[in-house]
Amino acid sequence: MKLTLKIWRQKDSKSKGRFETYHMENVSPEMSFLEMLDALNKRLVEEGGDPVAFDHDCREGICGSCGIYINGHPHGPVPGITTCHLSMRYFNDGETLWVEPWRAKPFPVIKDLIVDRSAFDKIQIAGGFISVDTGSAPEANSIPVRKQNADMAFDAAICIGCGACVAACKNASAMLFVSAKISQFALIPQGRIEAKERVRAMVEKMDELGFGNCSNTGACEAECPKKIKISNIARLNREYYKAY
Amino acid sequence: MYKILFSSVSKKFVMAVAGLFLILFLPVHLTINLMLLKSDPLPFNRAAHFMASFPVIKVFEVILFITLIVHIFYGIWLQIQNWRARPVKYASGQKSETSSFSRFMIWTGLTVLIFLIIHFFNFFFIKLGIVEGNPEDFYSVAHELFKIPAYNYIYLACFLLLGFHLHHAFSSAFQTLGLNHRIWTPVIKVLAWVYSIAIPAGFATIAIVLWQLK
Ligand code: SF4
Ligand code: FES
Fold this sequence. Notes:
CATH class of chain B: Mainly Alpha
Radius of gyration of chain B: 19 Å
Number of strands of chain B: 0
Oligomer: heterodimer
Largest interface: A-B, 49 and 41 residues
CATH architecture of chain B: Up-down Bundle
Bound molecules: iron/sulfur cluster, FE2/S2 (inorganic) cluster
Helix content of chain B: over 70%
CATH architecture of the largest domain in chain A: Orthogonal Bundle
Distance between the termini of chain A: 57 Å
Shape of chain A: elongated
CATH superfamily of chain B: Fumarate reductase/succinate dehydrogenase, transmembrane subunit
Number of strands of chain A: 7
Distance between the termini of chain B: 57 Å
Largest sheet of chain B: none
Order of helices and strands of chain B: HHHHHHHH
CATH topology of the largest domain in chain A: Fumarate Reductase Iron-sulfur Protein, Chain B, domain 2
Number of domains of chain B: 1
Mean pLDDT of chain A: 97
């Protein structure tokens, strides 16, 4: 495959960035998007240039670090997958691909395609935990959990904190992420104990960091690689009203 | 306290409650407008007079006006915050699938606001005595207005955009209030279609009929 890449290049958080054009030949449809970028970087290094900086770690869709905005979609145009799982066979020979970092005020660009997502960590630290005593693991069945709730909590807990929801949202709202983190606790008895403080603190931190407000467009749900549902956002709203 | 009252979730709550109140008001307004279709001006003028003078309704009118102002003010406030949350736009645009019309709420909303200002000058302000006119004969005022083609074009265009606005607003308000349900949410979505077509279509039909009457 032949491809034209328009990639956002930015030296550091203070510099002004711009798009650079790269022509790629012999791209195998079997490559993942990140492998294609690896091939580009190999060439750039050989030519003595500066390789494109992009975030990645597990390359198997579980760490959430590989967020790249491709042709108008976070993690590319294929739903339900991360950029590391995005195969080049989804693109057409001769296509031009626009490759950009996440764009949101609370996610400043560090270099090229890498953004600082520590805003998510700050929200987590504000309340995304439960208090448990240390010691040996308690008997698993001492606290009964309703099966349906356990399943829904699990579905929320698979959020990998990638930030695609913020990237996709026209308002750069973090509500889907926060709602997943609230829901994973709100649905089970262990999480009920600090439910009120948690939702207040996490929403407050989210607002303070400058994320936008949810306007229920549903873009987050459409782009989330883990298919987190916006019904979690309704739950977050309910939890918030109950907390006052 | 400030944080509770003006958090993102609280602001959205206020938007939703105010919006639902306005959604409830529109069918009432439409019912009264239907009387414009009669050749006798009395029923419409009587209804308009009743709406303007009955004490309980006067209280509602004040609430309605405050609700409208709050909805507009909060809507603009939220939108400015949302714009500021993304200072650098995407070069490749935003192609994610979204609920229809949800991307244009501020624009459809502002168009409706412009219409409301014209509307207030034509009716509401006359009633309040701010603008000159006969508050006892809104029937004739309406009939005269609908004879002007330009007014009709503006009226119909605004109601089309109001329909777009209502379509997202209807289901979005329930989601904001935390009401998302496996069975009821799809029902609400269907009702959103019905409501957002029926209400603007009702107003538009009256306009077209009066326009054609000349
Ligand atoms: S909710 Fe989905 S899109 Fe948002 S951070 Fe979690 S996994 Fe990523
Ligand atoms: S690199 Fe870990 S999710 Fe893509």
